[in-house]
Amino acid sequence: MNLERYDVKFMCEMLAVSRSGYYKHLISKAKPNKNELILSAMINILKEDIENENYGKVRMYERLKADGHKCCQARVSQIMDENGLRVSKKRKPTGTTKSDKEAKASDNLVKGDFTAEKPNEKLITDITQTPTLDGTLYISVIFDCFDNSAWGLEMADNMRAELVKSSLESAISMNPAMRGAILHSDRGSQYTSSLFRETLDKFGIRQSMNSAAGRCYDNAKCESMWGRFKEEK
Fold first, then answer.
1. Global pTM?
2. Which CATH fold topology does 122-232 show?
């Protein structure tokens, strides 16, 4: 529209367009495309951690939803296809923690809802590993679902039950208000061990576990926390 020669009112009348419709059009043009925003979020997720490169459409959708993005699975699939982000299937990864099939798992108290209305309400714990010049280093951390804060970071050259026990004790010493919270994990033998469960009872922590065998790392929320934690460090 040539505003130097014709005013908005005249042109809207000539084109049978309402002035409010014209200004609404200008506002919509100034807004970033929704697909571009989702694509940008996807790229940031993939850059977060090398493990994220095997994200398929379902895991990407779950992660975006966990991060607060409003989108449907069909849109996520379309954007991934159009931008070459669909990955080929890889072999099923082996978890850092190993499930103890003979141990009785605790109930899943979280049921996929990793939101919290206040601090020290819901916690997630997991073990990750990183290579060093002296060998593999295992890291245990407890995350608060309320604000993604990390507590009780402990490291060792092994991932025995003592590691997660020390992580929990360290977290409690740093944040005594954590007593009575729900602590969610996978079904790894470290978390089903009597040593860890006795420590939970000692501090009044309620144990929660995945409904099916797997890693806490497989939960979109926990992956998000690990990614942000590593980025900050």
1. 0.55
2. Nucleotidyltransferase; domain 5 (3.30.420)
